[in-house]
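Technical appendix A lists one of the benchmark inputs used to test multi-chain prediction within the project. The record comprises two sequence entries:
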Amino acid sequence: MTPLPGSPTPRRRVRGRWHGTDTVFQYAVRAAAALVIVVLVATAVFLVQQAWPALRQYGILSYLLSDRWAPSEATATGRHPNPYGIAQFAYGTAVTSLIAMVLAVPVAVAVSLYLTEIAPRWLRRWLSGLVDLLAAIPSVVYGFWGIFALIPAVRPAGVWVSRTLGTAPVIGPLFAGPFFGVSYLVAGLVLAIMILPIITAICREVFATVPTEDKESALALGATRWEMVRMAVLPRSRSGIAGAAVLGLGRAVGETIAVTMVIGNNALSITTSLLGPGATMASVIANEFTESTEPFHLQSLMVVGAWLLVIALAVNTVGKLIVRRTREDIA
Amino acid sequence: MARKALAGLVPLVALALVATGCGSTSNVGGGPSGGSRSAAGADFGAQICGSPQHQPRFPVPFGELPGGARALSGAGSTFVAPMMSDWTKTYSQSTGVQVAYQSIGSGGGVAQIQARTVDFGDSDTAMTPAEQAKAQGPVLQIPLLLGAVVPAYHLSGVKSGLKFTGDVLGRIYAGKIKAWNDPALTELNPGKKLPKEPIAVVHRSDGSGTTNIWTDFLSEQSPTWVHALGGPSRSAGKTVAWPVGIGGKGNEGVSGQVSQTEGALGFLELHYVLAQNSTYGQVRNSAGRFVQPCVATVTKAANGAAFPAILHHAVIKGTDPDAYPISGTSYALLYRNQTDPAKAAALVNFFSWVLSKGQDLNANLNYSPLSKDLQRLAVDQLKQVTVNGRPAVT
């Protein structure tokens, strides 16, 4: 459209009038976006920089190859063996997260299915809100609850398991006693409850994107509700559930205080029994950074932090990619 | 009380009968004598701990310095923090001088005084020569109070007063004694029904001055402990490589684990144990007495202690036969030479108050006041403060 001579186009006039604030706005949001990237990169750079003296002293690999964390054995000059082995922390993080996933994902899927497919409308809003509220409970409160409510409740079962399964061949070492409460298992249980809201929320969203036509067709063909869920809802949502699970995993991997309170904090080596005390990458940092007075102690905690950042970033990226692909599939 | 005493007597009599019946082999003969000694210890503990003791206040031999700053900053030990907050509050009420203390841990206290970011630091262990070399000048180390580390346990049906020796505690923490009914424990505690439960050993998961006092005591008393940790250089310190057990963060973490776990044994600061109403044991001291930890028996720990020899150990080694053996102190750290006269005057005023009137407040929080010897040593340290080379106290 060509403007009439002498009369400025309304569009240009609008643009002219807003030009100043528009630029400011643009720069402001750009700066905000850049800030996120800067913070992330700066954190990574900071961790590596702080960890550098220790990495130079002991080498990167020696950290992952040892499962013995004994700061009191560090000296200013000794290089071998590295007293700051972190394999047991990686193991603890993996095992507790895994327990949490195994317990939380099926429950989250079930809750989401109930909320989207079965629950009456009025209950749906209430129940969704309640599940979301689980995410609002502070981590330290979960820790308290773990120590004072969950552990006494699971102790009889744990003791029973350690006395029966604990003596079984092959799997025995995984359930060996004595069971005092604080353990990988209880940490996993607490984590499961903590990651339930995020997995449920995403699953709910994923299930809601299943076209009503698909569901109605299944029902019209005579499918029962369960068959409808199995044929129409779940197949379309498979990768969405996986993505939700991975994002939950991302939360579990980095969770600190609640885990520190219930895992038992055995930093010396890998405990084979799931009923025994262990430690995670996050818990050892929370425990030791205030009094990290041994040579290369603080720097080694930075190494743990750097590895934790790498793992958490990797897990979250994978989760986001899966969820995004699901959304594109559906679109 | 009477029933408890009777319950204690019955096995003594039984053992004595066995001893006479079987003739006195050295093993059986040892039982009654050990028992009577421990019974005496229990009586002693109850006696001393029951009656409130009034420690004569050591008069600080110099008056308040004029021209002091109105604010001071300090940082360090969490062990001393509850007491410090009481001191600073009372002190500011009477003088208007604000002392801000950050409870960041002894390691942080040393680091901050090295960097001169605070007016004083506080550490539960004296600074090592290496740490002092990193400071910007000579640092004075002033003991402020006495505190104790106490074995606390959770055994249903067993009350406070189980008897421990350093060696038995060392063997438990080394993982060599695994159950409550181990002969080593039942021998020390005749008449107590100790269950066949495994011992849930609880230790600190964070570095701590409390750990330092505890492990220093174990190292001194228990060869098994030293061996299990790989030598004396590794068996004592703020962090050690615990061979067994559950880690709890801070006193509250250990206290939580002990109170929640049947069969647990942990170590806690005395004021924590008393505040939480935990059950706790008696420990045998170098005079062979089993001593109940309390303000009075901890105060005696520093009687006869030599300075600066006490700087080299976390556990204070005194000579009083009635002293509780796992006692330690906390040191205020300040530069001997101050550059700001106002700060110097404020520091001297505050700490001379802490070392005199402040000591009366200690027992309220179940810390012990400094013994007279230690108080004199502390004041001697404080007298050395100089302002740009000239003595602050004249």
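The longest helix of chain A spans residues 10-58. Chain A touches chain B through 33 residues (CB under 8 Å). Comparable benchmark entries are summarised in Table A2.
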